[in-house]
Amino acid sequence: MPYKPKYTITPKINKALVEIERVRGFLDAINLKDDWVSDMQAKALLLESHHSTHIEGTAINLEQAQDILAGKKVKGVSRDDEKELLNYKKAMDFISKYLGKDDPISEGLVRELHKILVRGVRGSEAQPGSYRKIQNYVANSRTKEIIYTPPAPLEVPHLMREFVDWINANIEEVSPVLTAGIAQFQFVHIHPFVDGNGRTARLLSTLILYKTGYDFKRLFTISEYYDKDRPAYYTAIQSVRKSKMDMTGWLEYFVDGLRSQMKEIQGKGKKIITADKVVKRFEDKGLNDRQAKIIRYLVVNAKITNDECQKLCGSIRRTATRDLSSLVEKGIIDMKGELKGAYYVLSPTVKI
Known about the structure:
- The structure is a single chain.
- The chain is mainly α and 352 residues long.
- It has helices at 11-29, 34-55, 62-69, 79-96, 107-118, 156-170, 176-190, 197-211, 222-228, 230-242, 248-281, 289-301, 306-313, 317-329; strands at 138-139, 146-148, 303-304, 333-336, 343-346.
- It has 14 helices and five strands.
- Helix 1 runs parallel beside helix 11 (248-281), helix 11 crosses helix 12 and helix 13 packs across helix 14.
- It is globular, with a radius of gyration of 23 Å.
- It starts with 10 loop residues before the first helix and ends in a 6-residue tail after the last strand.
- 35% of the residues are buried.
């Protein structure tokens, strides 16, 4: 029997979809500098890799994740946690190759995603890229109570075949946003692999958006939304099973999460446009490229420390201090706080 999801497009879903389309139009229309887009994509990749693996139990904080993805050695971090983060980044790079491509999503592609994710880490014992041959369970991480028993292993191959067939048959018929949301739930529901199902599901959802022109310049990070309130994420997933497999509640949650991400991106986009205008006003002040970058950063993020300045500009402390001091002298920024607690903000005379 072919897979057929059950859901209703409620006013809440419809409103979120309209807002998502508006932001998509905004991003298509604006012309952001390549270096800005590149920086924002790198930040989004960092956040998505960190939050998606954090949901599954890695103990790496965001700063450690940033250093690991930058190729630095970080002490006191589990090698498994580090490898999971690096694998997720590789998987994100892998699906980026499918931006706007028309070729269908295949079971082989899903298996390859899983293989990249769990290679060399905890899940590697579960034969990366191979469907499970044993019964698995979803348990409450705190109480260890079993909250869901996935289909029997013998059912997995035909359930996955029907599921992938549905994606390819409906990817043009149903809103790609809804298709991505349905795919994320159904994959977790089938739980085709022994480990790594949550991460693979979120990547599959992202892949569907990438393929259908809903990549939003690769600036969104849906896992950040889930990780900020994990109980709400799990409740939304469980709501489908409690509603006799009606996905409406889950889809309301999914599209609202993407909507909130899109609004955040739109806000940043508007700030970036403003930032370029602010920098242009100070062209006669003899700014170097690093100082222009600092001003843009402050328009978007409100404040910056010396350490953040070094990371932003790829400079040493002495250079960062000189750049910041020069901007203070020019009356463009002000220093707040003292010693290690010092940070910099735009001067009140700089009108945004």
